[in-house]
Amino acid sequence: GLANNHAMQEYQSERMKLATQVLSPEQSRMADAGIQRLSRNVPGLDMAGATDVVKDLFGLTADMKESTGPMATTFAKFKVAAQGIYSLTDTQMYNMMRAADMLITNTKTPEERAGMITSKLSTIARGTSAFSGRIESKDLVQFATTGGTAVKGMSDQGFINILPLIAEMKQRAGTGFAAVNRALLMGTGMTDSRLQVLEGLGIANTAQIVSGKKGLTVKGGTGSSAETSLIKDAKLFQADQFGWLDKYVRPALIAKGMNP
User: Fold this and answer.
1) pLDDT by residue (tens digit) across 136-177?
2) DSSP the chain
3) Half-sphere exposure of 160 (CA within 13 A, CB side)
4) What is the pLDDT of residues 58-77, one digit of tens each?
């Protein structure tokens, strides 16, 4: 009846949008097979919804195999759940997918990537919903884009901890996050007085600090690995900045009689 006609019209509309991305005959065949598979295997997802998933992922990855593989199933299940639980729009979900893709580390297999994105998408949706509209999906994309390599590999808890900063700083959050990473991991902009503070708090990787006529300077070649970073426990810092502050900086300040 009318419902079936409407569903068919929606599917045809989404399929035409996908076709505008100039698919080869092989890509078109893979897309149609993937769409049918998704609509069969993901409860609550119709053909139009499955087509939208493939279209969005192909726009993101430019890889039809990946756009119809494990990551497609991940995104499809997220869309169905997110629409029911969080009432998210297609644009919001697409932006969350873009942000999640930029936040995860490089993986060896599509299955590993899909698993990491599943976890990150769930964290993003749950975390941002707690801010009652103060964080828009475009803010997440901006944070991931401007944060660059500094935000790649951030843990789920690290992301939850950084959300108040995103809500407050909006577009500046990623840039500020990246600057702090460059300073504390690579020594960018570190002066003698700042290095003395790090040493005084006992949180510096002293092997990377050189004492000379001009005071303390950063040893050449400092990087983001555990051995060459400017601070202790660079791995934790990269995964969760605020967790690192709680573990190392807060106790150091308390020991000096301060109340952070």
Assistant:
1) 999 999 999 999 989 998 999 999 999 999 999 988 999 999
2) -HHHHHHHHHHHHHHHHHHTTT--HHHHHHHHHHHHHHHHHSTT--HHHHHHHHHHHHHHHS-HHHHTSHHHHHHHHHHHHHHHHT---HHHHHHHHHHHHHHSPP-SSHHHHHHHHHHHHHHHHHHHHTTTTSS-HHHHHHHHHHHGGGTTT--HHHHHHHHHHHHHHTTHHHHHHHHHHHHHHH-TT--HHHHHHHHHHT-B-GGGEEEETTEEEEPTT--SSTTTSSBS-HHHHHH-HHHHIIIIIHHHHHHTT---
3) 13
4) 988 889 999 999 999 999 99
State the residue for tokens 């950063």: 218
The partner residues of 209 in beta bridges, in order of sequence, read 218
Residue type, 148: G
Cα(144)–Cα(171) distance, rounded to whole angstroms? 10
Query: And the tokens for 144?
Result: 């991931």
